[in-house]
Amino acid sequence: MTGAGHFTSSSNFGGNLDAKVTPIVVTSAFMAATGGLMFGYNVGVSGGVIFMRPFLKKFFPGEKERHSDSYCQNESWGLQLFTSSLYLAGMAATVVAAYTTRKFGRRMSMLIAGILFLCGTALSAVAQNLPMLIIARLLLGCGAGFGNQAVPVFLSEIAPTRTRGATNILFQLNVTIGILFANLVNYGTSKIKGDWGWRVSLGMAGVPAVLLTVAALVVVDTPNSLIERGHIEEGKEVLRKIRGTDNIEAEFMELVEARQVANQVDHPFTNLFIRRNRPRLIIAVSLQIFQQFTGINAIMFYAPILFMTLGFENDAPLYSAVITGAVNVLSTLISIYAVDKVGRRMLLLEAGVQMFLSLVIIAVILRINAWDRPADLSKGLAIFVVVMVCTFVSSFAWSWGPLGWVIPAEIFPLGTRSAGQSVTVFTNFIFTFGIAESFLPMLCHLKYGIFLFFSVWVLIMSLFMLVLLPETMDVPIEDMTDRVWKQHRVWRRFVE
Questions:
Q1: Which residues of the chain have pLDDT under 70?
Q2: Which domains are present in the chain?
Q3: Which residues span the membrane (predicted)?
Q4: What is the pTM (predicted TM-score) of this model?
Q5: Following DSSP, what letter does each residue of 426-475 receive, concatenated?
């Protein structure tokens, strides 16, 4: 098909924005997004259980002694390995998931994720020694690798163009709900004496694991996946059902054409690095690197410990973590409303300013009022620091958090979409692992300067996105090349 013909077909499809948001789309999207719930719970629960003394006594008995420096009192390579081992397994699993997602469909990868989550949850809840605990975390990491690879792609492909951003953000919304759920569970189980507290916390991950497994068995696969795998008529019928209209010919022909192009891609991972695909790869990878260098996971992983370092006592660390979790959820809801109205770029740039100011203010307060002992902060200043942390979390939650998953899932062509999402997840996990492993030593050595460290990165990433990120709002997912990349002042020289 010629370039002119391609553009005409895409224009017809792009004009078909009255496709209904059907019950099957809503149901499938919410069910698939439970993969985010599972991932979020495991992110949030680890930061709470390592705060529980029975857990430390059983698995890390050498970590009971506190460092004399408030910033360094929680530095522990063992605890960091427990938290971050999930991401090591996830990095390996997501590469395998690329093959599974392309050859067997999005549902299959989601089902594998659910089963791995169930196995990891069961083993972690009954763990008797550190090797059992780490193996459980590795199984959970494999589940996260499959789930995070398949779910965002599923959501992007099943959604109508005009609501694709909001639909995809359901994944991140569930991540934030999972984190909040974990913090609430940890707050309750921390009062249980003995081993039952942390075991209940880890075992409750079975709830989202069951939901994801059931979802994978119930939902239909996406038309994009069915057509890509040669099930043309089945894909057309599913497309008709999820769009709620018989006027699907333009979109159907786009998918058939995308399949023809995809069939020419023998090696998806290698194809990602050819010249015309480099802009997509650079944006997807940059989003993941920058997302971690906002410092968000450093705060969310260790929120209880962070607030304890700031001088809160007894239940206040977990209570404060619950507050930040609630802010995270509410702010993600704002993103669902705004992403398909103001666009991806505007949310990222506004949040960059807000995050930068929050981090700088926190650093200045700690520098002036608590050089070596943040626990010496007055109650009023400590509360103000928590407010600034919440301000930071809110801006991340309506920008870099959800859009780090939304944009990569919608910019790759069909033939390299699974591979592109795997590279996205791999990059996310390797940098999440790096931040998880390095945050406590950085906190110990940089002290208040850690917030300045992340603020510099926020400034860099905001300038990067200002210049290089194209707007993808309201552009059909199979028509990104003509409508986005060939129109961008920098990237068009690579694509044309």
A1: 1-19, 62-78, 297-319, 370-377
A2: 21-495 (1.20.1250.20)
A3: 21-41, 77-99, 111-128, 134-155, 167-188, 200-220, 281-306, 318-339, 346-368, 380-407, 419-436, 448-469
A4: 0.83
A5: HHHHHHHHHHHHHHHHHHHHHTTHHHHHHHHHHHHHHHHHHHHPPP-TT-
